[in-house]
């Protein structure tokens, strides 16, 4: 699944190529792509035509385009994009051949010569229209109002995060993947930040001191910013920006996907363990399993 850096790369592309444009026509080519819009394809298209797209926004892994409206109340509706495992938002010339798995086409009322396409091989993703949180200047869709801010958000509350972390009766990696506590962190970047912090994924959150959780947050931000600088992590051709280009942070990963390779810090063979239908990668020497009631 794409994580914060991959979604932010797409958001930046939408901001450059799509925001501020008025929708002229919408073609829904596969009903599953708008299955979260319960009113159906016709209503989805009717509500978009004639509307101007606002600035692309993101909270954690969630991406949306507010629909601009007159007056001081802010956007009242927004397009929420669910990328799923293989969803792509591509800006393509009108004359470009249709992709094999093209699901939705959005054309604009201008002469820029490009359109927005939603392409999804596995059809787990989709687009949907939602009301926004009343008065929210970013047009936050109400269905994701419960999602916490992410660590790259200037409004992220570090003190509240530290306090909530200590209150949780869970392990550190579970906490990092809890989108109501901190958003945008997925399996890849959790493993990377934990490796940098020398923390085992099963460490209890109750044992983390404020300096240790501050250090962890710092490493989360570092690894996400480094990934952003090179376009995110692309393990296959499905994770791309709006121009269809892959990121290459996978070449710089220190933990994820490196089973049996030497730890870049101490040389010990990296290990992989099954974890919540996923895998956790760690160094058994640098990230020692937790001992009961241990704290640092």
Automatic annotation (TrEMBL):
Keywords of this entry: DNA damage, DNA repair, DNA-binding, Glycosidase, Hydrolase, Lyase, Metal-binding, Multifunctional enzyme, Zinc, Zinc-finger
Record: residues binding DNA: 101, 122, 168
Gene3D superfamilies, A to Z: 1.10.8.50, MutM-like, N-terminal
Reactions catalysed: Hydrolysis of DNA containing ring-opened 7-methylguanine residues, releasing 2,6-diamino-4-hydroxy-5-(N-methyl)formamidopyrimidine; 2'-deoxyribonucleotide-(2'-deoxyribose 5'-phosphate)-2'-deoxyribonucleotide-DNA = a 3'-end 2'-deoxyribonucleotide-(2,3-dehydro-2,3-deoxyribose 5'-phosphate)-DNA + a 5'-end 5'-phospho-2'-deoxyribonucleoside-DNA + H(+)
Residues of the active site: 2 (schiff-base intermediate with dna), 3 (proton donor), 61 (proton donor), 278 (proton donor)
Cofactor(s) listed: Zn(2+)
GO BP: base-excision repair; response to oxidative stress
SMART domains: Fapy_DNA_glyco, H2TH
Cofactor, free-text remark: Binds 1 zinc ion per subunit.
Family: Belongs to the FPG family.
Self-association and partners: Monomer.
Name this protein carries in UniProt: Formamidopyrimidine-DNA glycosylase
Species: Streptosporangium nondiastaticum
Gene that this sequence comes from: mutM
């Amino acid at each position: 699944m794409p994580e914060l850096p991959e979604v932010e790369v797409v958001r930046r592309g939408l901001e450059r190529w799509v925001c501020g444009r008025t929708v002229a026509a919408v073609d829904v080519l596969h009903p599953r792509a708008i299955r979260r819009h319960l009113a159906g394809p016709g209503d989805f298209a009717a509500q978009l035509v004639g509307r101007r797209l606002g600035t692309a926004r993101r909270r954690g892994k969630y991406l949306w385009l507010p629909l601009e409206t007159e007056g001081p109340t802010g956007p009242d509706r927004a397009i929420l994009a669910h990328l799923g495992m293989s969803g792509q938002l591509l800006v393509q010339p009108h004359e470009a051949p249709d992709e094999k798995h093209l699901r939705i086409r959005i054309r604009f009322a201008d002469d820029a010569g490009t359109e927005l396409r939603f392409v999804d091989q596995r059809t787990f993703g989709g687009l949907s229209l939602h009301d926004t949180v009343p008065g929210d200047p970013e047009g936050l869709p109400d269905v994701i109002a419960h999602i916490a801010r992410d660590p790259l958000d200037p409004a992220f509350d570090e003190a509240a995060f530290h306090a909530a972390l200590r209150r949780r009766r869970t392990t550190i990696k579970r906490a990092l993947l809890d989108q109501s506590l901190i958003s945008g962190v997925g399996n890849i970047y959790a493993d990377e930040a934990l490796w940098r912090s020398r923390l085992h994924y099963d460490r209890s959150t109750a044992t983390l001191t404020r300096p240790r959780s501050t250090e962890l947050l710092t490493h989360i931000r570092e690894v996400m910013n480094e990934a952003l600088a090179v376009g995110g992590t692309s393990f296959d051709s499905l994770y791309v920006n709006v121009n269809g280009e892959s990121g290459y942070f996978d070449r710089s990963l220190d933990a994820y996907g490196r089973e049996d390779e030497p730890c870049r810090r101490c040389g010990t063979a990296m290990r992989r363990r099954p974890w919540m239908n996923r895998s956790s990668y760690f160094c058994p020497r640098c990230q020692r399993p937790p001992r009961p009631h241990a704290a640092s």
